Amino acid sequence: MLRRHALALPALLLGRPALAQAAYPSRAVSVLSGYAPGGVTDTASRAVSERLGRELGQNFIVENKVGAATAVASTAAAQARPDGYTLLMGTTTLAINPALQPNLTPKEPLKELAPIGPVFTHAFVLHVHPDLPVRNAAELIAWCKANPGKLNFGSSGTGAVNHLAQALFAQRAGIEVTHVPYRGGAPALLDLRTGRIQAMFQAVLEALPTVREGATRGLGVSTLTRDPTMPNLPPLAETLPGFEAVFWQGLFAPAATPQPIIQQLSTALRATNADPALVARMAEQGVILQQGGPAELRGLLERETAMWGNLIRQAGIRAE
Fold first, then answer.
1. CB-based contacts of 238: which residues, under 8 Å, 6+ apart?
2. Which of 35, 50, 130, 317 holds its CA 20 to 30 A away from the CA of 268?
3. C-alpha angle with apex 78: 77 to 84, nearest 5 degrees?
4. Cis bond leading into 109, ω under 30°?
């Protein structure tokens, strides 16, 4: 009997760490974002994080770490302890920065971050000043071919996703345009309204008011299908087959985060993005919630890194 108790004691002691270890998540989770508070990206991040927290029974708190083309936030996430308590709302910039600004970290997001799942996409609208004598994308392409370099195409900054959308459009259409970068979308939109520039790719929600009032003319959307916010505009892919240029966001963790935590977060994110109330609320902001897991987000990042990297190198685009 004594021998039996002596053998049992080490087993009990060995079992204590497992018994003492709390289930994930046992405390609040930080969700890092590289964007300032108040914009569509921040609003969507907070809405998804709040719903994700309810799914997992803990607070998921968005922390805005702005700077260096979102590299401040993504670097902090990549270097965080891989325990599931620091996550990243990563965006298209993870696919752009390695080619556009190779000095920024993380230099290899696919190796330094663990994908959890896609969060959302939003489309861009190609809209023009109404004095430009074009009614659709085909007419715009024809006008540009007849007037090479004369179209002033604005963007919110060199290397911004809407600038790269413009560069991709010009490359696929075989046209020459003049890029006019601004410090943000608001001053660019103001100059589009007044005719100082003639065209611009802009997020659906930002372009919607000016298109509705007739201050600009929408020609098409940058997704492969029509956007529910502006259903009357055709996809640009109807003119340029396969053309797609969207802003996307996905949830990431540090690379060495245990797989059970990744899978738990991925399952909860799928449930979050399937919530009908949240889907409807985000659609009003021009944001389309996505379904998918780690494989889908990894595939998206791989494709976009290759596409934008090739475009940046071929077009000779350099950060300001």
1. 137, 220
2. 35
3. 60
4. no
Nearest-angstrom CA–CA distance, 175 and 156: 21
Question: With contact defined as beta carbons under 8 Å apart, do 249 and 117 qualify?
Answer: no
Q: 244 — phi, psi (to 5°)?
A: -155, 130
Decide: pTM greater than 0.85: yes
Q: 293: which residues sit within 8 A by CB, 6+ positions away?
A: 116, 117, 266, 270
d(CA 189, CA 156): 9
3-state secondary structure of 311: helix
- Among 153, 303, 170, 284, residue whose Cα is nearest residue 230: 284
Q: Which residue shows structure tokens 């413009």?
A: 166
CB burial of residue 185 (10 Å; 0-12, 13-18, 19+): buried
Structural domains in the chain plus CATH codes:
26-121+248-315 (3.40.190.150), 124-238 (3.40.190.10)
- pLDDT by residue for the chain (320 residues), tens only, comes to 434 444 444 443 444 333 334 699 999 999 999 999 988 899 999 999 999 999 999 999 999 999 999 999 999 999 999 999 999 999 999 999 999 999 999 999 999 999 999 999 999 999 999 999 999 999 999 999 999 999 999 999 999 999 999 999 999 999 999 999 999 999 999 999 999 999 999 999 999 999 999 999 999 999 999 999 999 999 999 999 999 999 999 999 999 999 999 999 999 999 999 999 999 999 998 999 999 999 999 999 999 999 999 999 999 999 87
159 Cβ contact list (under 8 Å, min separation 6): 69, 96, 100, 101, 312, 317, 319, 320
How many CB atoms neighbour CB 270 within 10 A? 16
Amino acid at 41: T
Among 184, 168, 171, 182, residue whose Cα is nearest residue 222:
168
